[in-house]
Every structure is written in structure tokens, then in C-alpha cells.
Amino acid sequence: MTQEQRKELLRSQQGELNAVLMYQRLAKIVKTERERNAFLQLAKEEGRHARVFHDYTKEPLKAKKTMAHIMPILYFLLGRKRLYKIIAKGEYDAAKGYEHLIADFPEVESVKNDEHRHGDIVFGLI
Hints:
By secondary structure, the protein is mainly α.
């Protein structure tokens, strides 16, 4: 693994950890059980993604709470529809961003596929 690949894997691991907290926080503020269940499931899957990257980096990281704090504010300022479109786009972008890692890190393919599905799930909540 090159130094640049390691940095990217660490960034990805951090992002997945942060997403766990973000989705857990969203699950606490949404109004429907359908949304709550979806966000709790996404949080669980993002945790699995973080473990995939951890298996490569072997670096223990802690989730940063920034997005978990910002999301409720955005939820109320932007409204759920606009926020969900932004979140879905972030999931689709993450999937695309992982594509080039798959050749050297085959387990990332399952993460990429999940991220695309996450985008579909969040978009489906609109």
C-alpha cells in the first residue's frame, strides 16, 4: 500500500465512522418510523464499512461528531426533502469515489455497492 492509498483509506474510514453518528442522530429526530428504521440500518452498515477500511489500515479511529451536530440543524433549516437529496448525493459520490480503490482493495467493492444503495434508500425517503 502506498502512502497516498493509506491516507485515502484512513479518510474513508473516518468518513464512514462519522456517518454512523450522523445517521444515528438523524434517526433520533425524524418523524416517521420508516425513516428512523432506515437511518438506523444505514448507521449499522456504515459501521461495517468502517471495519472494512480498518482491516486495511489497522488504525483505530474515533468518529467525529461534527456532522451529527450539523444534521439536525440542516434538517430543520433546509427541510427533510432538500437535506435527503444532499445526503443521497453524498452517498452516490462516495460510491463513485471508492471505485478506483477496488483493484488494490477488493473488499471496498461491497462498500461501494452499499453506498450506492444507501443513496437510493435516502432518496426513496423523500
